[in-house]
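#struct-pred

JT: dropping the chains for the assembly here, can someone run the whole complex?
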Amino acid sequence: MYKKILLAADGSDHSIRAAEHALALANITANSHIDIVNIIDSETAKTEVLKFGESHMLDDKRREKLHGVEDVLKSEVSYEVHIVHGEPGPTLVKRANENDYDVVVVGSRGLNNLQSMVLGSVSHKVAKRVNCPVMIIK
Amino acid sequence: MKTGTLKQQWLGNGVKAEVLAGIVVALALIPEAIAFSIIAGVDPQVGLYAAFCIAVVIAFVGGRPGMISGATGAMALLMVTLVANEGLEYLLAATVLTGILQVLFGVFKLSSVMKFVPRSVLVGFVNALAILIFMAQLDHFEGAGWQMYAFTAAALFIIYLFPKVSKSVPSTLVAIVVITGVVIFTGSGVSTVGDMGALPDTLPMFLIPEIPLTFETLAIIFPYALSLAMVGLLESLLTATIVDDMTQSDSDKDKESRGQGYANVATGFFGGMAGCAMIGQSVINVKSGAAGRLSSLVAGTVLMGMILLLGDLVVQIPLAALAGVMIMVSISTFDWNSVFTIHKVPKTDAAVMVVTVSTVVITHDLSIGVLAGVILSAIFFAAKISKVKVTNIAEDTAKRHYEVDGQLFFASVTDFIKSFKYDDTVEEVTIDLNKAHLWDDSAVDALERVKTKFEQNDITVHVVGLNKESSELVERAAAAMKAGGH
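RK: done, full complex below.
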């Protein structure tokens, strides 16, 4: 049923819990696969360049932030990490709709609380516009 | 990651995307170029000519396609006293000299020198810049009536809420148009761009700055040109790295340094003030879909075209609307993350950031702040790095475990050797180097001496936890000893 799962994750506690739910969904079907997608928006890019400097260092740091999420899935299910640049909502929607996922799992709130207060949460935008079922982890 | 073919470099994500992004950027550039001229104390036309010249020249010679350069707040703030004391012609001459220095910087491939500016100094730099831009706006409110406050508040309201309605037009432009419309319609007598000086009515023309070509002139402009060149490159290379990251592509930083130089030489001769890359505008550009050189060319030409066509309307833009835009610019320039996480970063990093910011706010000079920050971090670094901590735990009566924490090199080995108890009663000691790093021959020698001293007292030594580089260093030293026939 849920063979191809998109897990939106930024390394926050919310996204770690989302990973646990994604794993539960993955376990329903044999040979399922989870794509962990971390979206870097321009504000995050700016902050992280200021904080870490060079680009190869950035990639490492970004992978590092997702270790908590990876720990949940490691040795349980096949997964892959994708770090994508763009605005979180639209980028996630585009990716989900273009790649025939069976389900999208997102946390209700990520690391960027301020932004979700001003612009409304990414998860609601995703739920509205993605064609497949969306699971929002509260 | 590669820089791509000429066609890719120019067209990035396609002609349509580039042109549209260029237009959006042009619209967002106009209020900023005017506002930065006002900060520098020159006519708005100086900033507008600069934005035009720099954006067009950098489109051809820049090293980072997709990045937008123009008149900036950082540069404007550095020229205030020069303009006030010596006038515009000296500023133009300083701008040309800034460009020459930047070209030299690029020719000698010095962009890697920027690595020596620590991250916390960079953070301090952008935060100080944001504070100065904000403070510069407060001047407009001195003695102003309630309308000034009301219009600025209204402008900010539109800037932050209009994106909820539509994201295709820059909200700053919408704010400017709406506020200007209201002011013209109600005829309220608030001060406008027209009160601040002339706007261009022709394309910029090539002119040699009217200054005496003497050593005295050079002595006046050189310090300004040096600060402008350094700050311009600092902000440009920082912006280039952000664009690299956003577009997932690499760029030639030395070419960008030279490009910034050519652009400043050109803008100086065409009556514009020195400028550099703009973080905010580059982000707008990339978000609008651009990744090539074309968008910068379009942005420059559209900006000039609009000013020439709509000059009569531009002079009526109230300063209140521009103040709103500048307050937004300062809020988005500020690295808020650095304040929210200040308790989490090392205390020395936080101190460097705070010292950089306060130096700039007190001196109003970004380059002095950066210098102070760099010196302070160097001192902290030297103090931190030469400290080696050795702790020991007695495992039982016959064994002792030493844990070494720190960098072992010529400056720290003396303390390191002194940290052990050689006349111990135990039979075995373990030296755990998991948290240590050996850097040079002095470190290898020191470790050997520690071992020998223990062995002289019949204590067996086990060295554990050498990291890869350190153990390679030890092996190399051993090999060299053999080769040397010892």
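JT: nice. The longest strand of chain A covers residues 33-40. Chain A touches chain B through 19 residues (CB under 8 Å).
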